Protein 1
Amino acid sequence: MQRLMSFVSGEWVEGNEPRSVLVNPATEEPLAETSTAGIDMAGALAYARERGGKALRTLSFAERGKVLRAMANAIHVRREELLALAVQNGGNTRSDAKFDVDGAMATLSAYADLGAELGERHLLPDGEGIQLGRTARLSGQHVLAPKRGAALHINAFNFPAWGLAEKAATALLAGVPVIAKPATSTALVAYRMTRGFLEDGAVPDGSLSLVAGPPGDLLEHLDRQDVLAFTGSSQTAMKLRGVDAALSRSVPVNVEADSLNASVLAPDVAAGSETEALFFADAVRDMTQKAGQKCTAIRRIIVPEARLSEVLAGFEERLADVTVGDPAREGVRMGPVTSADQLAEVRAGIEALAETTEPVFGGAGAIEPVGVDQGKGYFVGPVLRLARDPRAAAVHGREVFGPVATVIPYSGDPDEAAELVALGGGGLVTSVYSDDRGFVARAVPELAPHHGRLYLGSAKMASQSPGPGTVLPTLLHGGPGRAGGGQELGGLRGMRLYQQCTALQGDKSVLNALV
Amino acid sequence: MQRLMSFVSGEWVEGNEPRSVLVNPATEEPLAETSTAGIDMAGALAYARERGGKALRTLSFAERGKVLRAMANAIHVRREELLALAVQNGGNTRSDAKFDVDGAMATLSAYADLGAELGERHLLPDGEGIQLGRTARLSGQHVLAPKRGAALHINAFNFPAWGLAEKAATALLAGVPVIAKPATSTALVAYRMTRGFLEDGAVPDGSLSLVAGPPGDLLEHLDRQDVLAFTGSSQTAMKLRGVDAALSRSVPVNVEADSLNASVLAPDVAAGSETEALFFADAVRDMTQKAGQKCTAIRRIIVPEARLSEVLAGFEERLADVTVGDPAREGVRMGPVTSADQLAEVRAGIEALAETTEPVFGGAGAIEPVGVDQGKGYFVGPVLRLARDPRAAAVHGREVFGPVATVIPYSGDPDEAAELVALGGGGLVTSVYSDDRGFVARAVPELAPHHGRLYLGSAKMASQSPGPGTVLPTLLHGGPGRAGGGQELGGLRGMRLYQQCTALQGDKSVLNALV
């Protein structure tokens, strides 16, 4: 069986026994094994800081942009191989796999472009010069400088390619070396991708390391200039925030965690309209793409009471069309969830929802997947529930990370919709479908403080929209509260985590010479 | 004896016994007593969020600016009374008291001006519109909206007026209500100031509360849209970061903690030059102003080996001029530290420094203060030490929060100076004195990642400079690592803690109508 290695301190190393086994979640067939036991994590961090940090800091933004371009190219030339691995190890359909792998390329390319735009400088000005004294002579200028540590990226199992790439793009462009730790269960794609970066000489020595399994004692060695960024569950986030480095050495911990993203249908949207079609398409895509395992996927669908039965019928019809089975097989639209643990989690979540909701489609998710030996694979079918009690706690408090969503009726009043959405305790994205600017103008200020992104679906943008579930490199990704309070991407915004903002104060001509 | 009250849920309330006693640190005479025992902190938070938050959000930025202007005015008309209280309760000379009280007014006024500039809007755009689709139709626009919670401000004992004002200015302008908790030992000024705001009707109902003593169970009740900002010791910061609200509800904790701010004298600075005079004046001011109890005060003075004896002699001469005693007395330039605990801390710190440094001035800080009964008051004289070993751990690792600094020799190489400064593990501000742009250009990129501010002292700006110890509202205040990783002030930057950044994604004309 293939054995994964970790790339630390400039070389590929293998961990000691015991090893974890990576499987195909559709067939449960073992694919590879990995371990990080015995790897010198303190040494890995020191190497990244010393070699990688220095190497990146000698490069200008434009040159770092070229590094990202080379990484995107390394994915491009291995695209078919990576897609096949995503299908095998991730339970992805080919379309799901493209969403991950092409998303990785697109994000690296977008930050490569941003690097070219920022040009040959090393220190980035932040805002304009500020007059401080009686005359313009005494001046202030804020600058952004790369932190002198390393970035530890703890990535989620659902996006092994994009997750690694989007975090690495911002850190590397900022000038900070990366240690990427993919989730063990789906690490094959991240492993192959990283091998590709190194085979092609895309990244400077020390600037990208890979820990292909548990991080061991790495967290204990994080120091004052290091950064920790995490995507995953609230429980793990809580532990990471409590590590000594975060509590006593001010290591920032950026978290993307649970999010009960909502979709709000406004009362102005007519049956059969383009906006309604967008509303249905976005919700069904989010439920089924990657078997609902997207942190941005719609979990709560808030619908005017008056339209309820019609909308439920619309969903039933559309969900009935979804073929579930071995994602390697032609015609299958939804594969399994990625692991036995995830399947158990999703089933428990559906059970919790069932206590206060009614079934609309898919019952408890039992399904006979096509093209799979009986009893094999971590499959759950699309499940739509209806919350007659719009404030039922489980509906707003438990993220069921699978092909599961709940319809919630409301009066049609934007304030009521916003209040229901806010019960989610903070999310990554909520989408509002309306062609009534009055509704949008009332909903947006109420929804904004609880979200990192608001997607405003309308007839005019429907033909161009990638849907709310797609995270774009130019827009902020991250939400407050339950969603973790993190900020990723959004162009320059995502780079801030890796930069120190410093106010320079002095003679104006001295400051001008520096930036 | 005067009894302080807390202002919560729209009324002044008194805590139960036992009470803490506030004293005059020069005479140890009791001034007032206070307690917060039995106060309904959950209710206080709810009231602030509900009443205060709503009231502030109905105001535009310009209108919130007027609130801050009214607060500045309320201080202005009570200035003499507040200065007298600062002298009594803070151990401040009149000049120290002005630094605190006038600083509060200046910061409120600066944010009042910023409010006027931001105008009548409620939602602030963050950056430009972004084209997302094939055409300009599908667009993105980031906006900043006020969080829907309350801000708990835990302030430090050294700046009861400015500390409350600078934190409140940013939160209130952002649209978030404030619960201010001054340090108990010096709470008189904050108490009187807050009474003034309320007497003058300067602040909307619920937007400013005062907890005049320990916060009780307030921290336990912080929720997902709340914010915690703290200035004080690393130990307390560590505890605050570990509260459940921060770990599991993503409540952001902004920390300003210990900082071993440095001053670097470049080799080009000639004896008797204007730049050298600035170097001496800044260091001596920072050692003695507020008895060295400024988080921005210079603790490490890095001097070219070749100039060492000359510089030491310069300090001896200047420090010998400093009269220490009852700050209420004419001619006294430095008062006591603020409490018996602080005195014990400073003495222990000097002892720790003494293990690896030589005395230059003031020995261990024993002093006979003028105008004080023998044995009374928390006095320590100015202490200057010399570290023959430039890397001695205590010199770079222990912030002695009193009139204490250490001179450290270096070769004159900017990289070496920066390396020594970086041993401090991250600071609020470091100052570099040089008229050699080559030296400055080499030092700045090395120093920047370790600091929130760099003060570049030179002959050209000397006449206008307030010195590195003065925190300006337009420049960032906060540093990485040991300094806590926080970001305050800096104009709009300091407001970010209280705002959610949200990416709006939709039809361009819809977005344009919103911002």
Protein 2
Amino acid sequence: MAQLRIALAQVNATVGDLDGNAALIGEWTRRAAAAGAHLVVFPEMALTGYPVEDLALRESFAEASKQTLARLAVQLDEAGCGDIASYVSYLDRDDVGPRDAVAVLHRGKVVATQFKHHLPNYGVFDERRYFKPGQTLDILRIHGLEVGMVICEDIWQEGGPISALGQAGVDLVVAPNASPYERDKDDVRLPLVARRAAEADAPLVYVNLVGGQDDLVFDGDSMVVGADGGLLTRAPQFVEHLAVLDLELPGGAARTDGTVGEFTVSRRTLHAEPLAPYEPTPPPAPAEPLPELAEVWAALVLGLGDYVRKNGFRSVVLGLSGGIDSAVCAALAVDALGADAVHCVSLPSVYSSEHSRSDAQDLAERTGVHFQVQPIADMVTTFTAQLGLTGIAEENVQARCRGVTLMGLSNQHGHLVLATGNKTELAVGYSTIYGDAVGGFAPIKDVPKTLVWELARWRNAAGPGAPIPENSITKPPSAELRPDQVDSDSLPPYELLDRVLDDYVEGDRGYTDLLAAGFAPELVDKVLRMVDAAEYKRRQYPPGTKITFKAFGRDRRLPITNGWREGK
Amino acid sequence: MAQLRIALAQVNATVGDLDGNAALIGEWTRRAAAAGAHLVVFPEMALTGYPVEDLALRESFAEASKQTLARLAVQLDEAGCGDIASYVSYLDRDDVGPRDAVAVLHRGKVVATQFKHHLPNYGVFDERRYFKPGQTLDILRIHGLEVGMVICEDIWQEGGPISALGQAGVDLVVAPNASPYERDKDDVRLPLVARRAAEADAPLVYVNLVGGQDDLVFDGDSMVVGADGGLLTRAPQFVEHLAVLDLELPGGAARTDGTVGEFTVSRRTLHAEPLAPYEPTPPPAPAEPLPELAEVWAALVLGLGDYVRKNGFRSVVLGLSGGIDSAVCAALAVDALGADAVHCVSLPSVYSSEHSRSDAQDLAERTGVHFQVQPIADMVTTFTAQLGLTGIAEENVQARCRGVTLMGLSNQHGHLVLATGNKTELAVGYSTIYGDAVGGFAPIKDVPKTLVWELARWRNAAGPGAPIPENSITKPPSAELRPDQVDSDSLPPYELLDRVLDDYVEGDRGYTDLLAAGFAPELVDKVLRMVDAAEYKRRQYPPGTKITFKAFGRDRRLPITNGWREGK
């Protein structure tokens, strides 16, 4: 048997900020070393942040990544952390091309390097655009134990590096990850990691990134699973966290080198012999994954908060209509940034109901956000009178005057504007381009309307406080762009609409499948036409946090110019 | 020796419009048959249009593509075109996944099928997201000649299918393509096709798509090159065209089947024996590629015109500032759609010069477009007075009032709004989001400022007419958002700025390379900061025609949240 104390450093890296991320890694390595860890693992591309997108192709950035890594190895050693083996993932580049890589830093040097093998090229991922796959496996003997490594997607595919490590013989596998959050993904992770641990016949140390990066939020949820599938520890979601775990492993794995399947295995020894026995620390209690709505709320808060902070903003401004969408956005902003950083604006027109204004006021009082009223009637009249706008044109100009007002306040006072649209209206095009679609970030862009209601009820019940006025939750939704307008004038009931959209947008189901699912042909025709016709609006929409399997953004890339009609 | 009359059907397909494209293919096959052709080749994915993006992953669309192909084969036969071998590229799907495919239709049936092998996954291409590569080569014996086929990228890569066909033995190779236009690409095509023809030891029939599809425009430029590298015919650019060519080929190529390299070759015979000798038609004169500026102008006209037409619009509206950008956009719109479809609006503010108004009026008179004046002063005052906007906020609200006005006219009258921004300002963020960035399409989005001037001078000189007022070309550019403002207050001289941008944006050069190129450090710092900080604006910008190597859009995917600073 051999002991080893491992540390999982679930950190929040910032894309592009090599120096900042290196300092972060330095700080958390020191903490791991102070806790007596022999090995610390950071998430995938923690040094560069993830995803760097086309920065991966820029030679100057890859060079800087390599140089920062080498400097970091020296800095860790000079800081007294040279004895801990630090698994730091970064951007490498060789004759073949850019590499999604992990290096092990020890005593001032890089002692092992490996390149990601399986490169995901679906959904939000374009890794085949960026990286060349690796075919080598570098195994290190650390205190008498053979430690292998893989990176993220390497775990999600059958066969591949994990299987080869199992055949070659390892006592432990570490895996840096940058796995973006989606609802229910955490339910999938544990069985997946367990399967791979069994395949490797060794515990698997899964360390995931945490934090927001444009459309994506990474949920952490790092874990260690034994070869028998047992959960040894689990980190919380959506927060940075250092998990320190003492392992006692059988050791003595067979040590095949050379060619194993399509891989080349090489081994290097840091310390041949096991540690002298020591008193292990009790294992930390595994964190419980958050219940569903709490999890979604936490994802949205982190996605919004990190976008604001990482882009150097100190405040946000948004329109408060008294409706549920803007109320939820305001509540998220308060939870992410504090009420003092949130500026809410009621923008009543001649069609705004009294409750529109009073519900907005109510939210402001409940939450303590900054609040002002900017009536748009005069602005609207100036346009409609001069240009002779009627009907839809008159409705839209109201939304646009609101947009111009919010941008004016943003330009004048430095706030980031939040667009408050939800996924359902973005799907069917029930929003005004350059109107309510205005903003630098859209916190609930990927939240279907029915889930917006659920989240509002949950947030009020969960506390602290009940930020969302009850009336905002219960009243029939309305854009209030003409007298007595309600959403149900133009749209199917949201409960029904969201079910159709779930099948069409997330499920990518065709016409026949939708009919087979029981939806009426006229409903399917209407909804699909609306969704397809709204592609141009989505193309110009601000970014917002992905929480579903298929968000509007890089998940779903459809042409604007498109003659395809389902069911034709 | 054996003769064969081939036809290159350089057509303009519409993405998603299976029935429309099938009808198009039917019509052009009839024309080829009427011209006595024995074989006709259509561009890559002519049946579905290209690129279909995530539609490639939708099962219902792939099914419809396959069914439409089968129906088309029958329809061609029933229309009396069964004897001509029709090379029709489409979307297939099998157990492995979606396929970029080409089928040969003959006498009512599909007689050969092949899947694209090399799948580009760089620049604007994401084909590894969509397709699975093919490993088989189907060679048909047509009138005594062995005819092989490849698809697009198969030509751009060394080795692969062309090389295998050469080894296996073919008398002719046909290649459907969907190769997007870029300046200077036509200079590259001919040597490339010649190289591959030599590798195959057979003439190569290169048929390219023509037409606009969102950001991309396909330039046609189809050609036939002999095994000796000699150009046998060349189609014009940017127009649909049927090129009919009589070939006299040695025949008698060795006929290896089975495994050739990584491919499996199979052969099938339509007609074992050569045709009886006939009098060949004289070869058509090869089209001369357009001179550079004429070529760019034609690309922009087609890109704009097709976006408008294929999306069902009948008119466009744009702001006319009297400046060069909007003048060039107006001229493009007139050339694409006719003056009666173009609505120009002068939107003077209190800061607009007299020449701003008069130059706009001048252009309207030269071109015959619809013209109106909508002063924005009152709109602006309503916002600035109520919200207390000063400085940048006051400048931007003017641009936004213009945007709201154009959208109001669009909503009221059904015009598509054109955004008139150029590549240089989009690069450095010298545009107002939701202001002058407003529009459904941006015709000169990928045109650097210096090229805008060149194009304006060229267009006036080339005729017909001289649509652009001389003053618009010669006066110092200005956004006119504050008194006496000129672009050179905020930006380096455009000749210099465009050179830096060419290296940084298109060349992806880092800080060190830019200094080595001779640019001053302060200039490089300033320009790079501006470019990097403007990513969020570009993310919400309308689509526009790609003409350069790296356009803002799918060519250049950078994160908004980005801590990387060149030269730090």
Protein 3
Amino acid sequence: MSNPAAQKTAITPRRDEDFPEWYQQVVRAAELAEPSDVRGCMVIRPWGYGVWENMQRQLDAMFRATGHRNAYFPLFIPLSYFAKEAEHVEGFAKECAVVTHTRLEVGADGKMKPASALSEPLVVRPTSETIIGATYAKWVQSYRDLPILINQWANVVRWEMRPRLFLRTTEFLWQEGHTVHETEAEARAETQQMVDVYAKFAREHCALPVFIGEKSDSERFPGAVQTLTIEAMVQDRKAIQAGTSHFLGQNFARASGIQFQSREGKQEYGWTTSWGMTTRMVGTVVMMHGDDDGLVLPPRIAPTQIVILPITPKDETRARVLEACDALQLQLRGKQFGDAPIEVEVDRRDLGGGVKNWEWIKKGVPIRVEIGPRDLETSSVAVSRRDQPVKSKDSMSIQEFAAVAPELLMSIQQNLYDRAKKFQEENTRVIESKKDFYDFFTAKNSNKPEIHGGFALAHWDGSREVEEQIKKDLKVTIRVIPSGESEPGKCIFTGQPSARRVVWAKSY
Amino acid sequence: MSNPAAQKTAITPRRDEDFPEWYQQVVRAAELAEPSDVRGCMVIRPWGYGVWENMQRQLDAMFRATGHRNAYFPLFIPLSYFAKEAEHVEGFAKECAVVTHTRLEVGADGKMKPASALSEPLVVRPTSETIIGATYAKWVQSYRDLPILINQWANVVRWEMRPRLFLRTTEFLWQEGHTVHETEAEARAETQQMVDVYAKFAREHCALPVFIGEKSDSERFPGAVQTLTIEAMVQDRKAIQAGTSHFLGQNFARASGIQFQSREGKQEYGWTTSWGMTTRMVGTVVMMHGDDDGLVLPPRIAPTQIVILPITPKDETRARVLEACDALQLQLRGKQFGDAPIEVEVDRRDLGGGVKNWEWIKKGVPIRVEIGPRDLETSSVAVSRRDQPVKSKDSMSIQEFAAVAPELLMSIQQNLYDRAKKFQEENTRVIESKKDFYDFFTAKNSNKPEIHGGFALAHWDGSREVEEQIKKDLKVTIRVIPSGESEPGKCIFTGQPSARRVVWAKSY
């Protein structure tokens, strides 16, 4: 049965028709990114990169406020360094890109080819624990040199066989924090602090409700003792890991030789952590907030928060309309939202008003403001919020709008979070039996077969066997073992004792 | 003969003893950067990266103000793409790092080795004209899609046989602008605009006086029609290229297939430009402003502009001193300098006052302020400017200092520029004969054999033969053909007609 209303959406297919394809179409329509001709590598277009720059700036301020400074380490890691930590190299071996040659020269067939073989191959960093560890080993001599609290903004490469824009790409952008501490307790506190920073950033800046907690052993970072994570649920009810913080114990310190003289005069290995968030966050925002008309951006991370659309049907009123638009822009730019002045753009392009309006809808700009000749007569503007139906408009006086713009933006930010939180709650269920669990993830009574159950909170006995069975049967894994007080119970699969319910879901 | 005064400098050797070694020592002592274990790749430490971050933020604002937006393109370039522009691939062939394999596996000897050969090798970008061109070819259909005005902040790799921190490294950080225009005139105007942006940035932000102009054919960017450059003179009187802007004509548009339908309905190739500035700028600042006690930073790019050093000889006054320091910090942070609030740090570390003071001297922080118990009694502070002799201190009231701090910083900024400008002028000479030219670059009457002549302004007939002879004889090249009105004359080497004097120098 056809649905006439649905046919009018700007994005085809709709979310409930084909979520993965809808996602690709939203990313394209918003001009966030596109695949490049290099397999698995994407081009991040200005609008997408603008979102990432906002994320960077805001996250960076949070890192600075917690005492971290930025630095930069080499892109290449000598193979022998990379192999120092056994679990680590094993975990990343399949994903490495390797530089084996330098120089190009013309071959016998007249084509350019690699010329000089390196004596030791170089791995293009998939993550930098080993190369940064080698440097820290030189810096750290005494407990007085600790802690080292450094972050790096960089590109990394993990060869990807099934790439998807932002979610899984061979090259991606990220930040990686790498710290060294005198004691285990300090390193554990740092690991917790940084996952809390990620949670705050996800919630308050990206409007993403998240679960915080620990990964099970099978999902731990290769070489880590403990991995903490924030996990979001997007609109197809799958989980997505949005940031991780690893307590590395003394594993990497031992591998890299990070040793120091302790307060007691003994030689000890440092305690290290690492933590990262990536351009995947942009994809997570798309999947969480987007609708059938395209992207919906939380105001705090939108490159343009308010777009002013001049309506200029007649040449004789054009100049006055544009003047009013510019005046409003100037006024709005003088106002603060979040950590920076409001970003306002006047779209002066000589295109039809409808075309321009739909472009901005698809790009997810939080507020659109139309000003036409008739509005000038009444000193009013027509205001549309991207979190409301696309055709809805509020008429208000220019002065009133200028006064309330920051609150409007904040209200959109809050509404997106509340909506996402409600969605997450509606699709998170405490499950007490194996049968209910299997039903939750396989239910056929839904007429939306692509919709997965959501988050199941269920007791688990801590065994890897159970995890593997569930993964095999349902493609469901433990996404996070929530922090907080334990609530003992019994594993719904084995009846063995369980310390707390854990979060199970299908995932990206 | 020993020089007792000179022995007291914080850096050994002094500039006039061994400039290259002095440079390395300043970079190390200021904790700007250090070599990594990956040949040719450096580690940029927090203080050095902080300088780069300031450069980035300020330059980025200038790019935005001229209509550019940031984006991100792949690190890897398929070899066949890279080879599309013949001069280009030839120019970079010797410097390419090449990814030939993915995956690691355990070899017969039990060691990890590269496992899967790629069907087409990937060049790690040494610059991105070809990979960005391939994307622009998809974006550009009509003149309505032009101009494209995009910049990228990225790492690039050019294999370096004789690396030097910041000046020549295998991996370096930079920005690369890549634009496409409808007409030759627009593209040429963009090329000029961006070199002017670089000149303004160098002069006003980095306190570097520069010559602006064109490169001779032999120094052009491989594949460009014209390369504009800014060229600075550092303290050993050598030239250093500090930023370049290339007019690429239709060469890369042709190679990448960037075609559009013109206003007249014809298919035409776009006119492209590219322009870049790198982490080499950090090294240039070191070589221009540093002295025998270490780094001297222009206030606008210093990560910390004012450091407050609490003098706390006695426990009983410690708390009050620290309180006064914190209060002053808070007051200063409320003041603007350049585009941001003043960056102020209170160094509370439990080290000797002399040790701390010398650390900050070597790091080149523009203003050091000491507050001790006796200062509290008189509500005064002892202020030291890094552009003055290190032992000089000005006593002034706390309130006065807080009031004049922004002007003090601006005065240091201006003084560094004036000093550098004077040095450049003193070492730039109009030369009218071949003999004087050779004498200028080989004079033996100086007791400083490591000192090179400086900049020679001399007429040149435009021939490559002359350039090659001079390079062979003196290691001197044409650094820049200055812009502006021509002043015809005769080549000092051949007597042939010359349109203007050009700048000759030894160079980095």
